[in-house]
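Whether sequence alone determines local backbone shape is best considered at the level of individual chains. We regard such an encoding as a compact summary of how the chain folds. The sequence in question and its structure tokens are set out directly beneath this paragraph.
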Amino acid sequence: MSRPYRPAPPEPGGGPPGPVPHRRSARRPAPSLTECHATEPEDVVPTTYQVLVNHEEQYALYPSARELPDGWTPAGFSGTEDECVAHVDACWSDTRPRSVRTAAATPAHRAEGA
């Protein structure tokens, strides 16, 4: 299963978040924000993330120290990135948006596809 969406980090200087990368190389994952700026292993400060959910029941990880983005609410779990990913993997088995799952479950939709 792919990793949940994580919004882009803020621009240097405290401005709004930068654009979300369109595509990442399958050969090498992008480094985390703490890995980019760390010069020594002891300089890496663990970031606490929280799991967020939107109205379509899609999940995302977001740094706990940041203000929540519009349209997202806390799902009631926070921890390290790996802990949050494990939580999302355990509770988000059907990654289709809620509207798509609902439409697929209606009898009229199934009769059209038959």
Remarks:
- The helical segments are 33-37, 81-91, 98-105, 107-113.
- The first strand starts at residue 49 and ends at 54.
